[in-house]
Amino acid sequence: MTNKIAFQGEPGAYSHQACRNARPAMEALPCRTFEDAIEAVRTGQADLAMLPVENSTYGRVADIHSLLPNSGLHIIEEAFVRVHINLLGAPGAQLSNVTHAMSHTVLLGQCKTFLQQHGIHRIVGADTAGSARHVSEAADPALAALASPLAGEIYGLDLLASHIEDQSNNTTRFLIMSPQADTSRRGKHGMITSFVFQVRNIPAALYKAMGGFATNGVNMTKLESYMVDGSFTATQFYADIEGHPDDPNVKLAMDELEYFTTIVEILGVYPADPGRL
Predict the structure, then answer these.
(1) Where are the domains of the chain?
(2) Which reaction does it catalyse (predicted)?
């Protein structure tokens, strides 16, 4: 055991914040890409991986759903992180000094109102934590970063303004991935089962495959489609449902699903996080 949890991004990224929130006793291991974070777990450099899958404002995180089925890892937990955006400046800087703010383009777009009110021009950075690091190195009181509180802590920046995001409920959902599946648990707030499937090439196959969940009273909280290997004829679906595969109604629904599909792969069975509520 390494007691490490891998994430994509630099120290201070929101994924790093998710690691600290969900696994405070573990060392967070920064990785360049999502693939690198997955590979770190597969090769034993880390015990777990923290991967963002969707944001309440911007939807799903590109590429993640296509990476999960071939990762060799299993979802064991979900975590929700409120995206609080702070304006961070060099030590001694004042809000009145700031003329430019740097961050990932997504965060810049989430703080338009604040930036316009204070006449601050936007500079696109590669990511949030990297922008905070750049501001720390530049030591320019006119340049600030939009990033997490953790980034300010790591790079020694002053907090000039907090919670400046336009959307007060902006939240990112993360999945914690492990080499070992664990279907033995039962969550206080219920269970979530995540899986991918491909339907058979017959008329109304998707409609029929989904019918089993409706008739058996299984709530499907997520259903997304994406192309497989760039093909316009092969479509794979990712789904989250409420319940455990051992629940009688879920078992009946999954049995019906298999009849109309060529592939069904369960990615994880895990407790529902209270953040869902």
Answers:
(1) 4-83+170-178, 86-161, 191-276
(2) prephenate + H(+) = 3-phenylpyruvate + CO2 + H2O
